[in-house]
């Protein structure tokens, strides 16, 4: 890892230990970080955000490119082209509501993947290709976590909120964390047993000693919480007003914070991979990628965004693809197709 990156990572590690990260209520994060409006970006699903981003970006690309590059100087230099994929990853990184954790994970991921691309390009590309082949499972997991979040927000009673929060925690650990940890461990040359439990994954991460990304991922795994959830050994205590996990009082907000932190770190890993691939494009062996319905849907979203259509969501049933968009006038359609 370059000395500057090491210094930045150490500074971020110290900051994340000593700084409570919280979003400012009612703050327009899109305006502050990207120069875009909340109205342009926040309405709609996360799956379709790339279309809304590209549609908004097309209105003022030079100024927005310059602004994004200025905020990402610790990750990329000005000579690196901002491809659609890299733009999407950097924009999502800029919008993270846990920026210190997100940027630290991104830096660590970028340096790990770049190092292995240079030393073992075939192994690295093979590991990452297996990860990408799980995009259908990743999309399903994402939509599941959004459904659990919506259930939490709709819940009127603490007991319902507790169950929804634990569903989010299970999905984040069994989905995001386990998949990310598997990729990292495979990059490091470790063999992961088929159907390995979270406890096994955590032990393997801990066994890597001072490897910083492994330490970061291991810190997200609360095995006691996960076990209590799996075995229905939890309940909301209405008398004391607390969540009991395996009989131990647990702050419900701490569970929610753990979910956000775990997802932030895993997203940071993905952002770091995108940066490493962009910076080492000549070392990438793309091979023959399987075209799945997910990759086709993402291509549709990209095309829609590039012609200025802000897509709220995309859904597929068989060969039929439905795009939900903001209200369009005939002139909007003509301009987009011209």
Describe the structure.
The chain is mostly helical and 338 residues long. Helices cover 63% and strands 7% of the residues. The protein has helices at residues 3-18, 29-34, 38-41, 49-57, 61-71, 84-94, 99-119, 121-132, 135-154, 158-187, 198-206, 212-218, 223-230, 252-279, 293-306, 330-337, and strands at 234-237, 242-245, 248-250, 311-317, 320-325. The strands form two sheets. The protein has a three-stranded antiparallel β-sheet with strand order 1-2-3. A two-stranded antiparallel ribbon has the order 4-5. A hairpin with a 2-residue loop joins strand 2 and strand 3. It is globular, with a radius of gyration of 21 Å. Residues 16-20 have low confidence and may be disordered.
Question: How does the SSE layout of this entry go?
Answer:
Layout: H1 3-18, H2 29-34, H3 38-41, H4 49-57, H5 61-71, H6 84-94, H7 99-119, H8 121-132, H9 135-154, H10 158-187, H11 198-206, H12 212-218, H13 223-230, E1 234-237, E2 242-245, E3 248-250, H14 252-279, H15 293-306, E4 311-317, E5 320-325, H16 330-337
Antiparallel strand pairs: 1-2, 2-3, 4-5
Summarize it.
The chain is mainly α.
**What is the number of helical segments per DSSP (H or I, 4+ residues)?**
16
Q: Termini separation (Å)?
A: 47 Å
| Overall SS class | mainly alpha
Give the H and E element order.
HHHHHHHHHHHHHEEEHHEEH
Instruction: Specify the overall morphology.
Output: globular
Give the beta-strand count. Answer: 5
Largest sheet: 3 strands, antiparallel
Keywords:
338 residues; mainly alpha; three-stranded antiparallel beta sheet; two-stranded antiparallel sheet; 5 strands
């Amino acid at each position: 890892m370059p000395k500057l990156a090491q210094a930045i990572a150490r500074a971020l590690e110290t900051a994340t230990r000593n700084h409570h990260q919280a979003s400012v209520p009612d703050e327009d994060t899109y305006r502050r970080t990207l120069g875009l409006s909340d109205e342009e970006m926040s309405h709609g699903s996360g799956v379709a955000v790339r279309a809304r981003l590209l549609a908004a970006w097309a209105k003022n690309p030079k100024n927005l490119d310059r602004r994004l590059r200025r905020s990402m100087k610790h990750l990329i230099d000005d000579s690196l082209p901002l491809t659609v994929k890299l733009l999407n990853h950097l924009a999502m990184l800029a919008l993270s509501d846990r920026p210190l954790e997100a940027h630290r994970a991104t830096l660590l991921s970028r340096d790990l993947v770049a190092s292995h691309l240079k030393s073992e390009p075939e192994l690295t590309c093979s590991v990452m290709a297996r990860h990408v082949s799980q995009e259908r499972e990743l999309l399903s997991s994402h939509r599941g976590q959004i459904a659990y979040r919506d259930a939490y927000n709709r819940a009127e009673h603490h007991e319902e909120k507790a169950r929804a929060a634990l569903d989010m925690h299970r999905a984040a650990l069994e989905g995001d964390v386990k998949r990310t940890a598997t990729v990292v461990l495979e990059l490091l040359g470790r063999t992961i047993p088929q159907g390995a439990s979270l406890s096994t994954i955590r032990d393997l991460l801990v066994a890597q000693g001072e490897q910083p990304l492994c330490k970061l991922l291991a810190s997200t795994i609360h095995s006691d919480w996960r076990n209590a959830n799996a075995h229905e050994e939890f309940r909301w205590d209405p008398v004391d007003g607390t969540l009991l996990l395996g009989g131990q009082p647990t702050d419900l907000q701490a569970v929610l914070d753990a979910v956000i932190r775990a997802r932030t770190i895993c997203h940071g890993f993905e952002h770091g991979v995108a940066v490493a691939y962009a910076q080492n494009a000549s070392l990438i062996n793309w091979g023959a990628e399987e075209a799945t319905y997910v990759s086709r849907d993402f291509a549709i979203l990209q095309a829609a965004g590039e012609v200025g259509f802000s897509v709220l969501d995309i859904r597929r049933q068989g060969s039929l693809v439905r795009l939900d968009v903001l209200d369009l006038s005939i002139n909007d359609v003509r301009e987009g197709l011209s």
